[in-house]
Amino acid sequence: MQQTEHKKRVFVTGGAGYIGSHVVLALGEAGYEVLTYDNLSTGNRDSLLYGDLVVGDMDDKELLVKTLTAFKPDAVMHFAASIEVGESVSNPLKYYRNNSANALNLLEAMRMTGVGQMIFSSTAAVYGNPAKLPVVEETPLLPINPYGTSKMMTEHFLADLSLADKDFRYVALRYFNVAGADPQARLGQDYANPTHLITRALKTALGAFPKLQVFGTDYPTEDGTCIRDYIHVADLAQAHLDALSYLFAGASSAIFNCGYGHGFSVTDVVDMAKQVTGIDFLVEETDRREGDPAELIAGCAKIRNVLDWHPRHDDLETILKTAWEWEKKLVARGA
Ligand code: UFG
How far is the C-alpha of 297 from the C-alpha of 177, rounded, in Å? Predict the structure, then answer.
């Protein structure tokens, strides 16, 4: 999708986090004016390569209103959220607070300040354990963990608000498994204790963890481990820019899956991590992790057709290699 001609302003919550920072970089490179709002609880100031930062909490509505009033954005991108499926099972209220209640706060602040366009970071976890694969956007939402439910609730807020207010339009992007790092290694995931498979595997290869645990080998899949649709973070960032152009062109609210349409098992990922790193790290098969669906694969025709999204890194090896370059850089930096 074509870029709009004049410089637009985008307010980015969670812009110092893993996905947010890649999107901020893509926005900056595309000539947008960007302001990030982040409490730096998991985000990192050094990850912001464009625009200014306001350090604030998502439950601070007064600061949100003040910041939106001063910046006057054309659109909001809302990344700030808690993102771990396992943690959401043990601490559900954290997820309903951070992912649902705080989104409501942001929407109220947007209404108070007349900001009417939003791109929302949703998740494939809203689908739960889908009966039919690949999972398309019309599939009923049946989340099986509080993380998915918390994001589904925010999707309901957005849908209802867009029906009630013709000046409010949104795009919800349902991310599948986001991984990899900026191909120039300027950015990547930067958490000391990551739980996501690919980062965890690479950090295990580097010796940060003694072993990688594989959570469950008795799933109804070919090799018994869970299958996921891994999408490169740079392609996901481009999807956000395409969604923004879509909204700025005046199109109606919409929901898009963000994935490639094919999946890899945990075992596939572990094998590729060993190949890319050249390190035969220790792997231990353990029990299932609570809240994990067996298989998630995106139906991705809609985003390709409607947003004219053209992914450039649809390759597991590229995902692992870019993430590996980033992990080595973190070690060199002493992080
Ligand atoms: N896994 C392991 N060992 C680990 C970490 C993960 O075996 O150390 C397994 C998990 O059990 C799962 C798979 O690897 O089967 C992927 O797990 P991740 O934690 O990397 O990612 P999730 O699939 O749990 O969740 C991610 C995002 C969600 C999104 C979901 C959609 O965090 O936001 O993908 O597929 F909803």
Answer: 9
Return the ∠ at Cα 176 (arms to 244 and 214), rounded to 5°: 155
Tell me the CA–centroid distance for residue 85 and ligand 1, in Å: 7
In this predicted model, what pLDDT tens digit does every residue of 10-28 receive, in sequence order? 999 999 999 999 999 999 9
Instruction: Tell me the residue type at 288.
Output: R
* Domains along the sequence of the chain with CATH: 9-180+230-258 (3.40.50.720), 197-228+261-330 (3.90.25.10)
Which tokens sit at 151? 């994001």
| Active-site residue, selected from the candidate residues 37, 50, 147, 170 | 147
- Cα distance between residue 175 and residue 149, in whole Å: 14
User: Of the candidates 81, 76, 79, which has an alpha carbon nearest to the alpha carbon of residue 34?
Assistant: 76
Please state, in angstroms and rounded to a whole number, the distance separating the CA atoms of residues 186 and 325: 10
Q: Which two tokens stand for residue 116?
A: 């009417």
Q: Which helix (H) or strand (E) holds 254?
A: strand 254-258
> Exposed, middle or buried: residue 207 (CB in 10 Å: 0-12, 13-18, 19+)?
exposed
CA separation for the pair 212, 231 (Å, rounded): 21
CA of 111 to the centre of ligand 1 (A): 35
Instruction: Give catalytic status of residue 147 as yes or no.
Output: yes
Structure tokens at 314: 């649809």
Ligand 1, atom 23: closest residue by C-alpha: 177
Instruction: Establish whether residue 266 lines the binding site of ligand 1, counting it when its CB lies within 6 angstroms of any ligand atom.
Output: yes
Q: How far apart are the first and last CA of the chain?
A: 38
Does ligand 1 lie within 6 Å of residue 144's CB atom? no
pLDDT tens digits for range 108-148: 999 999 999 999 999 999 999 898 999 999 999 999 999 99
Centre of ligand 1 to C-alpha 65, Å, is 35
Supply 185's token pair. Answer: 């290694």
Burial 270-294 (b: 16+ CB within 10 A, else e): bebbbebbeeebebeeeeeeebbbb
**Average of pLDDT values for 214-221?**
97
